[in-house]
């Protein structure tokens, strides 16, 4: 292993502390947690050897084959002694695009695997801070791009069902080399829902999956456009930027577009526009992800109303024709 060297830090632009969701685990042979443990609170933050250093989180530009040393501060915010487990894990996007870490029993392949902690457990006196050193060793064959994970301090409570409460600090490591931001839109489907009002527009439910196909994390702004033949009745709906999408991750979204008229065949287009990466504005520098499909927009209430009107007009025409025939017959009599 090469000698350790100081990490190269870049601006950290997102919250570092991770209120990671609790995970229920099968009960083990360990002693049950006391009731007081459920009220214990703690935090973690980046630090130097002598204590927290004010950094909001860990972010590095790293090179393959190198080791980077750093420190994590675990602060006990309670009035009782606190013992927590320490481990690292890779980050993933949740189904809604949020930030989460793999559970401790799920294997990591990047940051969670690269980080080495000197201990798996630390005890912190009440209202005190303990600083734990750790190292991040980048494999010699690591490919360029973003690797994201976190270091977690976790407390497990419960007997029949164990619940893990965990707090972590995010770790962003960008492996030096060519970055290739790319985004795709997949599995696009659209369904039209007509209004009960035969003279009113309906709604279009559009479901699609946005995939980060590149090697850097991206902030994306999706939009949906729908139009009839020759561009008639065009409607566009733009959303706020999504939570940051990590490389290789995907999020499935459903957007309801209102004010869509039943014009028969509708061309539907979804665009996912990359607007930023790691806090840096992309400003059109990366091609958006695009997907298109066609659906049919019919209003059965409108069709039924038109058929009813046609039937009334036809009946009136027959009545008028009959009246005219009777008048002609009456006029022909001597």
TrEMBL record:
Q: Residues of the signal sequence?
A: 1-24
Keyword terms: Membrane, Signal, Transmembrane, Transmembrane helix
* Ranges where the record places region Disordered: 28-57
Q: Which domain of life is it from?
A: Bacteria
Q: Where are the transmembrane segments?
A: 296-317
Q: Could you identify this protein by its name?
A: DUF916 domain-containing protein
Top-level taxonomy? Bacteria, Bacillati, Actinomycetota, Actinomycetes, Pseudonocardiales
């Amino acid at each position: 292993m090469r000698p350790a060297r100081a990490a190269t830090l870049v601006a950290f632009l997102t919250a570092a502390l991770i209120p990671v969701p609790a995970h229920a685990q099968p009960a083990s042979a360990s002693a049950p947690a006391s009731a007081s443990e459920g009220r214990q609170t703690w935090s973690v933050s980046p630090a130097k050897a002598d204590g927290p250093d004010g950094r909001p989180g860990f972010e590095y530009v790293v090179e393959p084959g190198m080791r980077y040393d750093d420190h994590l501060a675990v602060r006990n915010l309670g009035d009782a002694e606190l013992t927590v487990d320490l481990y690292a894990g890779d980050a993933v996007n949740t189904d809604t695009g949020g930030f989460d870490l793999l559970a401790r029993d799920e294997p990591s392949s990047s940051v969670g695997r690269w980080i080495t902690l000197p201990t798996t457990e630390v005890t912190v006196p009440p209202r005190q801070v303990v600083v734990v050193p750790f190292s991040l060793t980048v494999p010699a064959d690591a490919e360029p791009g973003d690797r994201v994970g976190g270091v977690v301090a976790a407390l497990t409570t419960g007997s029949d069902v164990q619940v893990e409460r965990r707090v972590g600090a995010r770790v962003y490591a960008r492996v030096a080399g060519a970055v290739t931001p790319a985004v795709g839109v997949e599995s696009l489907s659209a369904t039209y829902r007509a209004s009960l009002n035969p003279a009113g527009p309906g709604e279009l439910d559009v479901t699609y999956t946005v995939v980060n196909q590149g090697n850097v994390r991206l902030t994306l702004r999706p939009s949906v456009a729908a139009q009839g033949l020759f561009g008639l009745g065009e409607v566009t709906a733009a959303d706020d930027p999504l939570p940051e999408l990590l490389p290789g991750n995907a999020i499935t979204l459903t957007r309801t577009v209102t004010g869509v008229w039943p014009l028969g065949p509708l061309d539907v287009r979804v665009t996912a526009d990359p607007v930023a990466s790691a806090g840096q504005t992309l400003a059109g520098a990366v091609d958006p992800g695009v997907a298109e499909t066609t659906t049919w927009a019919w209003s059965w209430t409108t069709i039924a109303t038109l058929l009813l009107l046609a039937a009334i007009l036809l009946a009136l025409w027959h009545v008028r024709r009959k009246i005219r025939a009777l008048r002609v017959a009456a006029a022909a009599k001597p």
